[in-house]
């Protein structure tokens, strides 16, 4: 059987490869009778033996250990409910933060935007600490930024080790960014106008390859937007 090459488009039911040829089966795929089969319409992406589908639906299906951006939408007695773009609201315990205790609870408010890790998927559960209890960038994101919901495939493309898109935008506009693998992207720049400009540039991400083009080529395209 011939495997589907990197960058080719597949539809649900297409056989992408044999399981023995793949190190890690990623989002948009499932294993069936020793074959890796597409669950979503999208573009096959391969990286050092790993394979996944970059699909452009905005609905997110939680995956264990994914880092996601979400918004606090409900207060509970023992934590909060967080919207991360999937079918169910995710649970976030007040103990899931660095330094949190029963007496020292984080002060989250409705509408706060957080960066967190998925630790359970059936009933989504989030934490804002690593196994050793450190935040390492997770937690409540600074106020003044903006969040835009893209497809999960856009975030994966931005976070690809070969991608030059974020570094290219940063040459012209300094900004902070948190890319959730759920497709929610938080951006904060010097001014509201600069933040909006970065977000407009990110709308073009689906048009860019993750590799194979120079920084100058991408920069020229972005400047012409």
TrEMBL record:
GO cellular component: cytoplasmic exosome (RNase complex); nuclear exosome (RNase complex); nucleolus
Keywords of this entry: Cytoplasm, Exosome, RNA-binding, rRNA processing
InterPro entries named in the record: Exosome_RNA_bind1/RRP40/RRP4, KH_dom_type_1, KH_dom_type_1_sf, NA-bd_OB-fold, Rrp40_S1
Domain of life: Eukaryota
MF terms (GO), sorted A to Z: RNA binding
Family: Belongs to the RRP40 family.
Name the record gives this protein: Ribosomal RNA-processing protein 40
